[in-house]
């Protein structure tokens, strides 16, 4: 299911349950706590979907920067064997910079660089090495 459709479905679900929690005649009803929990769960799930979309976009941007750097080293004549180590070293240097000097594709909460193995997987997935 498309994430945007899922968000819409969760919003509609919460919207349809809202009258159960707000109608005066149902305030003391046994359905009210159940409907209230269902609404809170739907809102929490919606938040998870939204943050998942943002995280995927951040990862795509990060992967593109790593791939671009790998292609730069490849174009400058570096051997395939050394590219992963060089890109990993470059990424560690970028992450070590103060937050104000970091490239915008590095999330503010990032404290350490990806592992060398993760960098290699990104480069392989994008056919750099």
Describe the structure.
It contains four helices and no strands. The longest helix has 45 residues, at 31-75. The model has no long low-confidence stretch (mean pLDDT 93). The protein has helices spanning 3-22, 31-75, 80-96, 116-125.
How many independent structural domains?
1
- Hey, roughly how much beta strand do the residues contain? under 5%
Shape: elongated
| Count of DSSP-assigned helices | 4
Largest sheet: none
Query: What share of the residues lie within helices?
Result: over 70%
Whole-number mean pLDDT: 93
Point out poorly predicted stretches. Answer: none
- Report the structural category: mainly alpha
Straight-line N-to-C gap: 33 Å
Number of strands: 0
Question: What's the SSE pattern?
Answer: HHHH
Oligomeric category: single chain
Radius of gyration: 23 Å
Q: What is the topological layout?
A:
Elements: H1 3-22, H2 31-75, H3 80-96, H4 116-125
Characteristic terms for this protein:
single chain; 129 residues; mainly alpha; 4 helices
What's the quick description here?
The protein is mainly alpha-helical. The chain contains four helices and no strands. The protein is 71% helix and 0% strand.
